[in-house]
Amino acid sequence: MKLLIQRLIAILILVIPGIAAAYGFLLMKDSLFDYFAYMGGADARTPDFAWGKFIGGAILFLIGIGFIGGWIFFRDRKHNYLSSRFRPKTPRPPRPERREQSERSDNGTS
Questions:
Q1: Following DSSP, what letter does each residue of 43-85 receive, concatenated?
Q2: Does 103 have pLDDT greater than 70?
Q3: Helix, strand, or coil here: 10?
Q4: Burial level of 108, CB count in 10 A (0-12/13-18/19+)?
């Protein structure tokens, strides 16, 4: 039962940002549609753009998409599904020390 509740909570954690992103997209779409629909009216001289509605929708959209994208990225990193450019850098092993120039000249070779 405990595992079922944990999975339900995990699904809710992903669904809520998805709904927020979809609602933000709808707010941006509606503000653009209202602006262009009002511009085509015969009595409208200078249509007003709903900046508050558009910016609020953009913020909701970016937060929702960013959360879901970050979750997928860190899940894939944990399962080692990422491309090599996104994997953490591993330090190179140290280079073996080179022989000095004086040691080569002592052997008779130039």
A1: S-SSPPP-HHHHHHHHHHHHHHHHHHHHHHHHHHHHTT-S-GG
A2: no
A3: helix
A4: exposed
